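Predict the assembly for these two chains.
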Amino acid sequence: MNLSSLPPLEVLFKNPQIHVKNPHLDTMEEDVLYHFNLGTKTHNLPEMFGDIKFVCVGGSANRMKSFAQFIQQELALPGNMDNITDICEGTDRYSMYKVYFLSPGMGVPSISIMLHELIKLLHHARCIDFALFRIGTSGGVGLEPGTVVVTDKEVDCFFRAQFEQVVLGKVITRSTELDVGVSKELLQCSSELDDVPTVIGNTMCTSDFYEGQGRLDGALCSFSTEDKLEYLRKAYNTGVRNIEMESTVFRAMCRVCAISVIQNKSVSNVTNFL
Amino acid sequence: MNLSSLPPLEVLFKNPQIHVKNPHLDTMEEDVLYHFNLGTKTHNLPEMFGDIKFVCVGGSANRMKSFAQFIQQELALPGNMDNITDICEGTDRYSMYKVYFLSPGMGVPSISIMLHELIKLLHHARCIDFALFRIGTSGGVGLEPGTVVVTDKEVDCFFRAQFEQVVLGKVITRSTELDVGVSKELLQCSSELDDVPTVIGNTMCTSDFYEGQGRLDGALCSFSTEDKLEYLRKAYNTGVRNIEMESTVFRAMCRVCAISVIQNKSVSNVTNFL
């Protein structure tokens, strides 16, 4: 795969300004991004991060480190690939490498903490015209292992394009409907790569890896193989092509803050449902 | 704090056998604990883990490593404290140190994956008469930073002692009511330690660190300081003394499998609500 052969992704560059949706931020003397070990008083965020054009989120810390090294080499960026440093090394909650890669942990709560702090970081650093990518592995629904799924719509376990969250004891619903065109443009890119089978499909987000995704091998399982297959067939018929654990909150929060997002995940060998 | 001065926690030793609630496990030729990088065919689990008496879950990987080293020293266990190895080092999803400590990541989904695999691990290793501890930091509600909260009841953001999960598109509710006596016995232990202020209280589990816990400094915030205080006062009046992100699923899953659990967390400096 030769990254330099990719066509320009013009549609992605449309974040003239981040709309942080929190009036309290303006009145705060200092903003500490606790889980990144960064802050507006302790770090010069515009100098450190103001030039960002791409942020990649996904996978485990080691996987993101390897990917950062790979991209540094592909783009022939200056610096020693082996000495790439973790910007968040003062904490081990998340890892961050410049050319920017972030490991978000597993599940909606873990990635939502990261997103709050990442969006504020991009805001404080006054970043403009950048794109957020989310990459990683997932369970496929009726697909061969290795297939890449570019997400069309992020849906919850009831196949609805929305994300529900409880705020001060009340359920709040946020849409996950996406920017038209971005996923098609990415699919177009992938058609120029021979060795990467790629499809567009809906991505289902669950809050549990075992029972929540219909797996039969958890410590608890109260359903039959037939129940599982019936649910997965229903998912497939609504357009679901892969299952993972973070996509809905990622889309919903970025959508509120007017940030362009691309989520694509390869189908792992762990599970190829159906 | 001198661990050897602690009285025996007899009430904890009541796990004659783990009740794994999954009939499919009996029919499987091999059980791979994906996120631990362990399996029933590749590892002798009874030999590696059969002698376990305590499992400690909590905090970040580095914090758990330090705690494992501290306990190794306090209990004067054999082996070089500095060479303590991560049993899950083939993956960086979780970390595990023998004398047994596990870092579970942040949020219900991340800890639930760990719990499925930990419960199966203890089952395959044929462990008996052990206790599970969960430790870490949390946001306090009306408490001084540094206070330890021994959990009486784990409640959700509506103050109910239950954990809800979606399984194959249906909402399943599991109770988080606890073994009577365990938390009182732990409080009794703490009364013998001069420098550790300890209380018993309800622990509220949320799925978000910022909006979900009423914080005003997230990237999104749609409520006022007054709304936040009203919600936290309501929480306090129902008995909530600290807020974190994993307790309900921990209690609910262990309860189904008849595993004794103790959860206690110290109030961090990050937040002392109210």
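Residues 1-13 of chain B have pLDDT under 50 and may be disordered. The domain at 17-128 of chain B is CATH 3.40.50.1580 (Rossmann fold).
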